[in-house]
Amino acid sequence: MADGTCVDSGVCANERSGVERTSGDCGTESALKSFWHQCNSMWLLISGCLLSGCVTSFLATYLMRWLAPRVGLIDKPAARKVHLIPTPLGGGVGIWCGVVLPLATSQLLIWYWQKNPPHWLPEELARHLAGAIYRARELWGIIAAATILAVTGLADDFRPLSWKLRLGLQFGVSIAVVASGVRATVFLDNPWIGAVLSVFWFVVLVNSFNFLDNMDGLSGGIALIVSTIFAVMMLTGSGGPHWFVGGFFLIVAGAVIGFLFHNWSPARIFMGDAGSYFLGFSIACMTILGTFYSPADSNRHVALAPLCVMAVPLYDICSVMLIRLLEGRSLFHPDKRHFSHRLVALGLTRVQAVLTVHLTTLTTGLLGLTLYAVSTWGASLIILACVGCVLLLIAILESAPRDAV
Question: Distance between CA atoms of 76 and 81, rounded to whole angstroms?
Fold first, then answer.
């Protein structure tokens, strides 16, 4: 009998020490070992994804700071903008590199490790290698679609494109991805409803991140917060860790951290439309792929978690577009009616305004995470009411005089 194995008589034989333990002790030891192995797997995944994304993005963005001015990729000051000096664009290219290059490297390593698994790779991760390879086609389809939008955004950064063309491409790419099978089910038998909702979810999040890119570190910080919270949900939520989607969110978070080293106030480079389009679409797709609800626990309210996490960005884009609609202006005509601008109108500095938007997003995100800790609709409604209170607070702050902006 091997060391520490349980015998049929209900005791645990340990040949090395000769000590007998009850089957309960064996069960406890087994549970502790399982927990320890999962922790090792978790920390390996977290550190690997965050570091690879961060370092790659940091270096690529640094390179873009040098390259952008030389190719004319510059954002010049204007009446609707808050920066006062010409600033390089192209930070989105750095973010793209920080996500795609680590993913490509991971894919190659997974293919190799499946045949030659290294001795240090935790078993918890090793047994998911085949699944990661199986989902590779789905992953790279999403990356290809997000890259098409990033290239569209980069072209717009060089020379402004018609909003109709950009919106048309966003819908076209979103429809293609949904047709490939990446769609929400929303607990309904009719697949068309989930498909339509998924298309609009993709387009709204793409433009939401684009609208939020109006102050140094704002859109990048929001992307970091929501990616981190989604990663926590995937790795600790119902049904066990979802390593594939959780790892993707961690790589995105790492890439944004690397970018923020250059983009935090005073920004030395902006992400531009290329970055906001890529982040918005990637995060939107992964929230659809991620399993927020598990039939095993019957807690359907956790499916509302993504809406809580994205509550502030969604409120911002909806309120801004409503104002433009009521004033008879184009929905995509830039202005200074965003939450961050309103905070500056109240007397906050730009950094304080950005941090306030970050804090409100973190608050609603943590409330979304709390949905996993409750088991009744009554408790979940209280959490949703708290999210609503945060949005009402934002609405009150947005009532600041516009002429102060």
Answer: 9
Element (H, E) at 186: none
Question: How does pLDDT run across 278-331, given as a tens digit for each residue?
Answer: 999 999 999 998 865 555 556 778 888 999 999 999 999 999 988 888 888 877
pLDDT of residue 334: 75
Q: Is 11 in a helix, a strand, or coil?
A: strand
Q: Are 298 and 249 in contact (CB under 8 A)?
A: no
What's at 361, amino acid-wise?
T
* Cis upstream peptide for 266 (omega within 30°): yes
How far from 267 is each of 16, 82, 182, 261, CA to CA, in Å?
Answer: 62, 12, 35, 9
Measured CA distances, 275 to 157, 159, 227, 250 (Å): 10, 16, 15, 17
Sign of CA dihedral 254, 340, 213, 58: negative
| 303 vs 291: CA distance, rounded Å | 9
Amino acid identity of 171? F
Residue 239: predicted pLDDT: 67
| Residues 16, 19: Cα–Cα separation, whole Å | 8
Q: How far apart are CA 207 and CA 225, in angstroms?
A: 18
180 vs 142: CA distance, rounded Å: 10
User: CB-side exposure of 100: number of CA atoms within 13 Å?
Assistant: 19
CA Rg, the chain, in Å?
24
The answer to whether 39 and 51 have CB atoms below 8 angstroms apart is no
DSSP labels, 300-344: GGGGGHHHHHTHHHHHHHHHHHHHHHHTT--TT---S-SHHHHHH
Alpha-carbon torsion angle 7, 9, 12, 15, nearest 10: -70
Tokens of 281: 């679409």
Strand partners, 75: 87
- CA 70/CA 368 separation, integer angstroms: 44
Question: Residue 299's pLDDT is what?
Answer: 72
Query: What's the DSSP call for residue 8?
Result: T
Residue for token digits 């790795």? 235
Bridge-based pairing state of the strands 5-6 and 87-88: unpaired
